[in-house]
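In response to reviewer comment 3 from the previous cycle, which asked for concrete evidence that the modeling workflow produces usable outputs, we include below a single protein chain processed end to end. The sequence was submitted unchanged, and the resulting structure tokens are shown without manual editing.
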Amino acid sequence: MLAPINLRERICHTATIHRFDIPLFLAYESTFLCAAERFCKTAHHWMKNDKGTISVSLVEEALALARASGLDARPLAETAGIGAPMLASSKSRVSSAQYGALWAGIARALDDEFFGQDSHPMKSGSFIAMTQMALGARNGAQALARAVGFMRLVLDDLGATIETHAAADTPSGTARVRVRFVERAGTPAPKMFAYATYFILVYGLVCWLVGRRIPLFEARFRCAAPPAAHEYRLMFCEQMHFDQPESYVDLDPAFLELPVMQTARSSRTFLRDAPGSFIVKYRNPSSLAARVRKTLRALPMSNWPAADQMAARLHVAEATMRRHLKQEGHTYQSIKDALRRDIAIAELQRTNRTVADIANLVGFAEPSAFHRAFHKWTGMRPADYRPARTGRTERRIPLELTRRAESD
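The workflow returned the following structure tokens.
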């Protein structure tokens, strides 16, 4: 049976507190508790559980919304383990744990899980309430309808409708489910971050409920291309277009009949790092670049294949692989460099290995060569990625959030 949810605050605009499952709310809040211990992982284990890193451009977009609402952004970033040197470099990257902590910190500081992007705030605890409502769904179709319906209750300016299109009715001849965005007349046009925030809340929840990533076919948005367009394509899909007459995302309809497999018990763990973890958890795995990266991270770095050998592993011609990677904005070398970068960042942030040891780990015989490459990748020195220290006390990302974000 669906747990009772009090929506009086949204409907009446008078209540000051959500009244729902208090243990779930406390579980969500416990995300922000810091632990004194750290933990280490070997590079091979990290590679098998690789979630990648996130561009500082997305961090800046989130912090800009905090500043627009009158918050001091610097303490929020520092609490998430994102220091001033990272913010100063346009090439720098943050871990999924850092971004998740920042997301949660801004939402809590604003008391708005939509970051002030709608004229009505999405009060803290709304995502928990949405999760509880969707848990009572029978299948993916009903879960999506409940999530979209809940967002209509809590936001005034941005909503969505759900459409189903048979294969015969689409130019591609492929059946699809379309989540079409609806914007209230007379309100400012949403930016990409607003569309993405809305979609990731709904999409991430439904993916979790049915136990798999739902493939995305295409995404179109009215807004201009954002500076971090490449990062958004990782979140959505390669077929992503901007400056369009309408905004929508097309999904593979196979999820509609999948049963909801989650329970109130499993939601307690889920809610501790959601929704911030969705940014990397449900990234597009079907692009050729993602397949190349997945193949590389399953191998010891010393056994990484040459381009022709990688093409053979993927059962394509080398020229075809290079052409498709170029269309996706990559080269084989850039994918290898990005994976080396992410391994190095993880080791710098989570272990006490020396820079020389990390340089050797990611394939550099000389630390000086690693320093040059790292600066080229991130615009920063390796030492800038070490956790900040105050006296003898190390500033740490909340351990529980870090463990969950990297183990999912």
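The radius of gyration is 22 Å. We consider this sufficient to address the reviewer's concern, and the full set will be provided in the supplementary archive.
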